[in-house]
Amino acid sequence: MARGGRPRFRGQVRSGAVILAFQILLVLTSAFLVLMILLHKGRGGGLSDMFGGGVSSSLGGSSIAEKNLDRITVGVAVLWGICIIALGLLLKTA
Predict the structure, then answer these.
(1) pTM for the whole thing?
(2) Where does the pLDDT of residue 88 fall: very low under 50, low under 70, confident under 90, or very high at 90 and above?
(3) Label partner for 67 (CA 20 to 30 A): which of 3, 35, 56, 86?
(4) Burial of residue 56 (number of CB atoms within 10 Å: 0-12, 13-18, 19+)
């Protein structure tokens, strides 16, 4: 028995560890998503110009660095959304 006279079930320990893992992943993806958004080019240029984004041709639209930054940002945003949904479902059942 755990403190307070309540029995401790193995499922509670596992779901607590899973919830903690999703919370940590949510914090990390949130910080990384903010960083990725700040790297994007705005009206007058952005931090992506530091990584070769300023050498794009006018015919190609955006540079390779900007396209890769877009892909990474979308991937992190999808992972962030999955974490939000998973945490919502886990905390609803816990």
Answers:
(1) 0.67
(2) very high
(3) 86
(4) middle
